[in-house]
Amino acid sequence: MGFHRKPTTFVGHVKVKVENLQRSIEFYKNVLGFDILEQTTSTVKLTTDGKTSFLSLEQPEDVIPKQGRTTGLYHFAILLPDQSALANIVIHLVGKGIRFGSSDHLVSEALYLHDPDGNEIEIYRDRAPSEWNWNGAEVEMAVDPLNFENLLKHATPDKPWQKMPAETVMGHIHLHVSELIKTEEFYEKGLGMDVVNRFGGQALFLSYGKYHHHVGVNTWNGIGAKAPAKNSVGLESFTLIFDNERARNQAVTNLKQIGAEVLEENNNFITFDPSGNAIELAV
């Protein structure tokens, strides 16, 4: 549908920190169905198509468990290509004895679970954009019960879940932040996103190209929440993929104009939102 490929800017990669890399590899391979693209003693790049990676795991030195009531990762969201894939992974997770939550967001159907370190993962499928309801500039979203009876009608028992479909992508990322005013300015004026939903007074959803959201932010861990320790389990960084150098350079200019820090080394750019969440700016 064009929301996760150029010319639209999109979240192309997420890197998360874990306590035990081998334990995490077993989970992401045997439970979720990723393959390994590259691996070192402390990192692994995961793949669904055997050629590219949209998710990496890292075991920092002196790693400590996930800290509560901090900024950082709320969840990263894996977008499946269709409803049948979502139905099939429901059956697969139940068979594996994996506990998960669920929700119907009107624009999508979603499952929620945690990896062995407590990093939350959303696995979802989008409804067709023609089914999304827009009220002016805002898209209607909700947290309704998921209709499993209807969903499971789309399962394919003759082709059960074995691994992540090759067409799977990183759909979006949702972050804990310490406040919303400067955060909105950063993502809107700095990175060029549009606010497409205001969820109460505690969450914002932002996107490029009229997607329901590429980034979500919330203050559910408390106004003024502190950043986690650098060696804590959780988010290391996520990557935004821009259409071309010109588009990225414009974002860098905009970020500097609002006072955001942008680091550059060997044509690699990284910035930090007001809560310290690291974002790589790539082409």
Automatic annotation (TrEMBL):
<dbReference type="InterPro" id="IPR037523">
    <property type="entry name" value="VOC_core"/>
</dbReference>
<dbReference type="Pfam" id="PF00903">
    <property type="entry name" value="Glyoxalase"/>
</dbReference>
<dbReference type="InterPro" id="IPR018146">
    <property type="entry name" value="Glyoxalase_1_CS"/>
</dbReference>
<dbReference type="InterPro" id="IPR029068">
    <property type="entry name" value="Glyas_Bleomycin-R_OHBP_Dase"/>
</dbReference>
<feature type="domain" description="VOC">
    <location>
        <begin position="10"/>
        <end position="126"/>
    </location>
</feature>
<protein>
    <submittedName>
        <fullName>VOC family protein</fullName>
    </submittedName>
</protein>
<feature type="domain" description="VOC">
    <location>
        <begin position="169"/>
        <end position="283"/>
    </location>
</feature>
<dbReference type="InterPro" id="IPR004360">
    <property type="entry name" value="Glyas_Fos-R_dOase_dom"/>
</dbReference>
<keyword id="KW-0479">Metal-binding</keyword>
